Amino acid sequence: MTFKAAWMLIKPFLSDKLKKRIIFHNSIDTLLKYIPKSVLPVQYGGELKSYDVSDWLKRAMAPEKLALLGGRPRQT
């Protein structure tokens, strides 16, 4: 199922107020009309430095963290 098809299924259940708040962008130029460059990372056309989340992701996926969420570590 494409995103457009999924959106068409979900859209009727949303309030008009919420529908007006959801905007899809097909380019950086349209995105920057709504979100300032100062709050976007460079990979999205912004001015914030690029960041690496791999260390955070490793910590978040640690077995003791997954247990708090009810998850189980994968057996390798």
TrEMBL record:
CDD domains, per the entry: SEC14 (cd00170)
Top-level taxon of the source organism: Eukaryota
Segments forming domain CRAL-TRIO: 1-52
Gene Ontology CC, one term: membrane
GO molecular function: phosphatidylinositol bisphosphate binding
UniProt-listed Pfam families: CRAL_TRIO (PF00650)
Signal peptide annotation: none
InterPro entries reported for this sequence: CRAL-TRIO_dom, CRAL-TRIO_dom_sf
Name recorded for this polypeptide: Clavesin-1
